[in-house]
Structures are given as structure tokens and as C-alpha cells.
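Example for tutorial group B:
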């Protein structure tokens, strides 16, 4: 494998050129920090979310799913502390009117050209003030303060307010988890770096409820499990690290928090946070709703408010990390190949079928092979241009397998099966393809035990 050649610019260009990600509302000049997933991007992001769901929910006996409404009762956000505390410090430049995160001025640049650091131009900065990141909207036809609701800034609170519903309906008993994926909204002061920080994004969150006293072991367990998940799906271990928060970084409710960080082209940045949220959220909702959200363990006759371990990941940030990590260029300078070495189970298209030539019945035969594979895996068909160019087009979007119908196929019903990474080809019978292809694009098998070991 070649040396690291990836820049954010190369990834953004590839995403636009090949239909992974487009700027939102582009024909109107775009809307800052908003993006649309194109035909390949939507498949990739779905695969990332499915990989998370499979390993966090379906493959476990102790986790169930939920899909909550984005708009929730406004008192949820009072109880959670978001109305009072979900603020970032902000300053304005009196000259250019730019708005900046006061705690990130060294990374910001003002909108004037030539661009300078805020405060380093002639403009004076205002005093620091708090800016609440929640988006507010109105429910119903009357736009008064009584109708104000928030777009959820995290999916987690939907899980906490449904805790008793799930305990009663699913007969769940700690240790157990409730998982959710879905959109969240934050009016970030300085969004940027493509999909990394946007104002509308998708989260993949697990709230894992445990008996107090068992929280430390589960906190460690989920840190290991989540690190392993990224490497299972192909992230290079050297680009991943776990960083424990220092005491002065911890949220007031957290007993511990560690970030899974990825070495993006912009530097080491948070990919996911894993927090021991204690019993803070359930207790807040008990206090504000007046409802009993404690758990009664019929076996031990104990009643307690569970502690919560929360692995909270970003689906868009994760998708970006998988793209960046997979991006590679190889071959000699005069014949460079761009290749996305995505884990086959994440690749948007699993197999591309090609007739070697557009004659002698090869296209018809190749269409037959594609039609046979399509119900099993996402399958592309391409008959335009030279075969080498077609392989390159698929390499660039990460398609792990290429099937070529050639002269020999017409005699003996065999095809060549090409591997994206090694570029090696093997001759296989057409009737062996369904089993072979399915096996080669299967997701990794999770080897982490289901619970902390001793
Ligand atoms: N419930 C806990 C929670 O929301 P967080 O660290 O604020 O924790 C969790 O967010 C994850 O959501 C982050 O690690 C990141 O992957 C993703 N995320 C947060 N803000 C984001 C943004 N503005 N744009 C893209 N992803 C974001």
C-alpha cells in the first residue's frame, strides 16, 4: 500500500465527481454546511448505519432499538439541561460581522479577503457571550412562545424518556441497552470541514443501562467494543485512538468520558464519545416529569435508578472517516490509480459486471450474470470504453469485485473475478458466483464477548 496521500480536498472532489456527496441546493448557490448524499453516498452511509445496527442491536440479546420523534415536549430539554447549558461561547467581529467560537479562534478565519484570524485584522471583537445551539421552531399555526419547540440536538433524550415504556413492553432488565439512529440538529457557530461539522447530522447512539456499581466495568467494555468496531470495518489502527477526557473537560453529569478520535487530514478529531452519564438523565426526568423511572429487580427485590453508559457516534462523521481511510492512490506516476479500499461490506456497489467487448453475445451474457447477482448484492453493469478504464472507474468508488464475461465464457460458462485491492483475477464458474460473491462481501464477525470479562 502506498504512503498516505489523502487530503480533504481530494475526498471532497471524489465525492462530488462520483456522486457520493453534493452541496445542498447547489443550483441556488448551496446552503452552508448542508450536504446531500448522492447515489453512491446514500448506499455507503446506509451500510455504515447497518453495520452499526447489526453489531450494536441485532447481533446482541441485550439491546433493543427505538425510533423517536425529532420534535419532543419542550420540557424534555429543560430537564436534560440543554435549555440552560447547551451553549458555546461566541464573539462577533464588529468590522466584518463574522461570528466565531470564542474557544476556537486559533482555528478560525474571518470572511474578508485576504482572510485573517479573528482579532488579528482591524476589526474589534465583541465580549464573549453564550449562544444556545438548539434550533427553535413553532408547532401549529400560531407562532407564539407557547408553541415553541426544539429540533432535537441529540437522539439520546428520546431514549431516556421512553425508558419505562421499553422496560415494560420489552421486559428488559439491566444490563440492557436501547439504541437509536437518526437526525440531530445543532446551530453550530462554525460548521465546516465538509461532513465533519454540520448543522444537520445523523447520530448512532446507544444508552446502556446498568446497575450502579457495575458501571465502571461496562464503561471500559464499551470503549473497547467501539474501538474494535471501527477496525473490524477496516479503519487502520494507526489512525484511531482513544482519548480520555481530563477532569476539567468532563460534563457536569459525567463520571467519565473518552473520545474515539480519528486522524483526519485536519488532524486528530472526535469520531465518537463514550460517556458514563451516571443516573443523571433518568433522575432529571424523574424530577421534571414527576414519573417514577426507577427499576425494580424482582429477583433481588432491589429498586434503583440505573446508571447509563453511552457510546454516541456520528453517522456522517463516521462515513467521512471510512472514506478518508479508504482513499488511496497507487501505481507509477504516469499511470496512477485512485482506489477506495473500503471494507467490502461497506462498499456502495459490491460487484460490477463487464462484457470484455460489445460483440459476439458478450453484453447479453454479462447482463444475464448481472441480473443473477442483483437480488443478492448491489450490482453495476458497464459496457462503455476499454475494460481497463472500466476497472479504474469501479476502483475509484470502492467496488470490491469485478466480473468479466469474455470469449471463453461463451464456451464454458466461466468468467474472471477481479479483486479491487490486489487486481488479481481468478477464473470461476458462473454458477459458483452467487455463493462466492456473497461470501467475499460479508460483514466481519464480531469477536468481542457480549459482556465484560472478569
Ligand atoms: N448524546 C451525546 C452526544 O450527543 P456529542 O459528543 O455531542 O454527544 C456525539 O455527539 C457524536 O455526534 C460526535 O462524536 C460526532 O460524531 C457527532 N456530532 C456531534 N455534533 C456534530 C456536528 N455538528 N456535525 C456532525 N457530527 C456531529
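The residue assignment follows.
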Amino acid at each position: 500500500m502506498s504512503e498516505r496521500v489523502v487530503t480533504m480536498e481530494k475526498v471532497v472532489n471524489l465525492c462530488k465527481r462520483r456522486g457520493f456527496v453534493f452541496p445542498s441546493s447547489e443550483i441556488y448557490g448551496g446552503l452552508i454546511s448542508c450536504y446531500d448524499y448522492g447515489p453512491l453516498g446514500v448506499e455507503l452511509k446506509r451500510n455504515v448505519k447497518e453495520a452499526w445496527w447489526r453489531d450494536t442491536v441485532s447481533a446482541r440479546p441485550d439491546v433493543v432499538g427505538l425510533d423517536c420523534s425529532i420534535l419532543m415536549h419542550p420540557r424534555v430539554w429543560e430537564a436534560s439541561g440543554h435549555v440552560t447549558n447547551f451553549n458555546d461561547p461566541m464573539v462577533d467581529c464588529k468590522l466584518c460581522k463574522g461570528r466565531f467560537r470564542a474557544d476556537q479562534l486559533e482555528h478560525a478565519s474571518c470572511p474578508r479577503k485576504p482572510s485573517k484570524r479573528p482579532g488579528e485584522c482591524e476589526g474589534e471583537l465583541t465580549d464573549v457571550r453564550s449562544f444556545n445551539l438548539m434550533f427553535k421552531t413553532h408547532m401549529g399555526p400560531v407562532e407564539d412562545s407557547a408553541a415553541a419547540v426544539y429540533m432535537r440536538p441529540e437522539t439520546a433524550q428520546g431514549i431516556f424518556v421512553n425508558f419505562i415504556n421499553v422496560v415494560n413492553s420489552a421486559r428488559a432488565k439491566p444490563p440492557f441497552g436501547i439504541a437509536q439512529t437518526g437526525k440531530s440538529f445543532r446551530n453550530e457557530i462554525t460548521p465546516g470541514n465538509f461532513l465533519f461539522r454540520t448543522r444537520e447530522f445523523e447520530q448512532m447512539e446507544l444508552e446502556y443501562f446498568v446497575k450502579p456499581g457495575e458501571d465502571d466495568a461496562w464503561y471500559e467494555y464499551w470503549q473497547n467494543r467501539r474501538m474494535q468496531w471501527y477496525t473490524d470495518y477496516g479503519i487502520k489502527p494507526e489512525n484511531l485512538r482513544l482519548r480520555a477526557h481530563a477532569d476539567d473537560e468532563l460534563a457536569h453529569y459525567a463520571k467519565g468520558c473518552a473520545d474515539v478520535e480519528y486522524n483526519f487530514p485536519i488532524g486528530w478529531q472526535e469520531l465518537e464519545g463514550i460517556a458514563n452519564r451516571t443516573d443523571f438523565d433518568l433522575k432529571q426526568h424523574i424530577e421534571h416529569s414527576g414519573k417514577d423511572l426507577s427499576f425494580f429487580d424482582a429477583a433481588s427485590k432491589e429498586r434503583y435508578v440505573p446508571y447509563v453508559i453511552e457510546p454516541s457516534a456520528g453517522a456522517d462523521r463516521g462515513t467521512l472517516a471510512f472514506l478518508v481511510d479508504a482513499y488511496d492512490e497507487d501505481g507509477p506516476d504516469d499511470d496512477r490509480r485512485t482506489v477506495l479500499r473500503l471494507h467490502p461490506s461497506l462498499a456502495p456497489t459490491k460487484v460490477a459486471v463487464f462484457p470484455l467487448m460489445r460483440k459476439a453475445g458478450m453484453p447479453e451474457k454479462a447482463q444475464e450474470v448481472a441480473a443473477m447477482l442483483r437480488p443478492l448484492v448491489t450490482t453495476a453493469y458497464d459496457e462503455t470504453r476499454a475494460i481497463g478504464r472500466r476497472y479504474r472507474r469501479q476502483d475509484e468508488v470502492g467496488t470490491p469485485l469485478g466480473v468479466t464475461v469474455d470469449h471463453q465464457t461463451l464456451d464454458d460458462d466461466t468468467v474472471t473475478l477481479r479483486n479491487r485491492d490486489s487486481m488479481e483475477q481468478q477464473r470461476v464458474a458462473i454458477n459458483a458466483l452467487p455463493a462466492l460473491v456473497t461470501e467475499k462481501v460479508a460483514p466481519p464477525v464480531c469477536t468481542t464477548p457480549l459482556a465484560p470479562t472478569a
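The chain has 13 helices and 23 strands. Compare this with the pattern of hydrophobic and polar residues in the output above.
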